[in-house]
Specification:
Mean pLDDT: 91
CATH topology of the largest domain: Rossmann fold
CATH superfamily of the largest domain: Glycogen Phosphorylase B
Structural class: alpha/beta
Strand order of the largest sheet: 3-2-1-4-5-6-7
Number of helices: 16
Number of strands: 13
Low-confidence stretches: 373-384
Strand content: 15-25%
Helix content: 40-55%
Distance between the termini: 26 Å
Shape: globular
Order of helices and strands: EHEHEHEHEHEHEHEHEHEHEHEHEHHHH
């Protein structure tokens, strides 16, 4: 029988963690693994993708006013689902570790995929204590980057050697250089062949640092007058960003595209990809841009330096440094051979180090090593 995995997440909206989860499920061998996805708060676009793949999706529907303690509800859900493994992701789902231990009929895996704020933001001591407890109770603890592993190990006092790192992987059958898609999307967007197109894909949250990109464009535009900026994504920062762009008179220069289902085509239309995040785990959008064959410019934060070799497969800049970002953009806009060089090396790096096949293989090995259902009957566990 296949190993039954219950994946516990906060929600199934349009985000890197959620998209990565669906990619993993779609590529794991269905003869070896069976999946149930449990969303604590709400569903979203990725729930639709899972449904099309025949994966059972359960939504608890927790409201913000509900009790902050979810262990009891999660334990009840685990008893109903009867998984071999419960895999919780990030802080919002960490209580599933305690629920799994309470039920006792399954193994427990917890993974960290990113931060809600910058790495220098202090967490409440209660959260640090609870996270360490969860790490100690879990059968395996994972992280998507070495930087994130070391950060949580340092905060909690948990041994970094006990945290396994599995980098995200990109689906190169979906993201690849496509001249036809580039030409078609640029026509659709009204972009001329010589117009320098800068782009970014991601939720419009403060932690994503989009304001830094706009500040850099303000400096860039003083020396370059033939450009466009594409921002694909939605979120609470949109009004602020639109106000900033409007004050600069960029109505026809900056396009707020909202949530898009045509990300591969949009990436192909770009001449450079910018990731100005304050904090990251391993950015799926960064990997997707590199796999599409466009040069990337990203903040030197989180797992970004593990993905981008500065000066070889992309360019890095300090968090919030709009001036340095502007200099990078000016360099790339003036030197098309440099753009092609960075893009080619990015393609090679993604193929060799961040393939989805490598990621899926490592998760498959981990799930099988954790083991199948414990010998304790579920009926007995239900009475705990």
């Amino acid at each position: 029988m296949p190993i039954r995995i219950m994946h516990v997440v906060d929600h199934l909206g349009k985000g890197g963690l959620e998209n990565g989860l669906v990619n993993l499920i779609e590529h794991l061998d269905p003869l070896r693994f069976e999946h149930v996805v449990y969303a604590i708060r709400k569903l979203g676009p990725n729930a639709e993708r899972l449904a099309k793949s025949g994966v059972e999706v359960i939504c608890q529907g927790k409201q913000d006013s509900d009790s902050p303690f979810q262990v009891g509800k999660l334990a009840s859900a685990i008893r109903r689902v009867r998984p071999d493994i419960v895999h919780s992701r990030n802080w919002a789902a960490v209580e599933a570790v305690l629920a799994g231990r309470w039920v006792r009929s399954c193994k427990v895996v917890h993974s960290e995929h990113g931060l809600e704020a910058g790495a220098d933001v202090r967490e409440p001591w209660r959260r640090i204590w609870f996270r360490r407890l969860a790490y100690q109770l879990a059968d395996r603890v994972l992280s998507v980057s070495y930087q994130l592993r070391d950060l949580h190990a340092r905060r909690t006092g948990f041994e970094p050697a006990k945290i396994t790192v599995i980098h995200n992987g990109v689906d190169r059958q979906r993201f690849f250089p496509d001249p036809a898609a580039r030409a078609g999307m640029r026509r659709e967007l009204g972009l001329s062949d010589d117009e320098f197109c800068i782009g970014c894909v991601g939720n419009l949250f403060p932690v994503k640092g989009h304001i830094t990109a706009l500040q850099a464009i303000e400096q860039f535009a003083a020396q370059h007058d033939n450009w466009r900026l594409l921002l694909a994504g939605e979120g609470p920062e949109r009004a602020r960003l639109e106000t900033f762009a409007g004050a600069q008179g960029w109505k026809d220069r900056v396009s707020f595209l909202g949530t898009s289902h045509r990300v591969p085509e949009l990436l192909n239309a770009m001449d450079v990809y910018v990731l100005p995040s304050i904090a990251e785990g391993i950015s799926n959008s960064l990997l997707e841009a590199m796999a599409t064959g466009i040069p990337v410019v990203a903040t030197a934060t989180g797992g970004n330096p593990e993905v981008v070799v500065d000066g070889e497969s992309g360019l890095l800049f300090p968090i919030g440094d709009a001036q340095q970002l502007s200099r990078h953009l000016l360099l790339l806009s003036d030197q098309s051979p440099r753009r092609r060089e960075l893009a080619q090396r990015a393609l090679v790096r993604v193929r060799e180090e961040f393939s989805i096949e490598s990621m899926v293989g490592k998760y498959a090995q981990l799930y099988e090593s954790v083991g199948r259902r414990s010998s304790m009957p579920v009926e007995a566990a239900a009475g705990v």
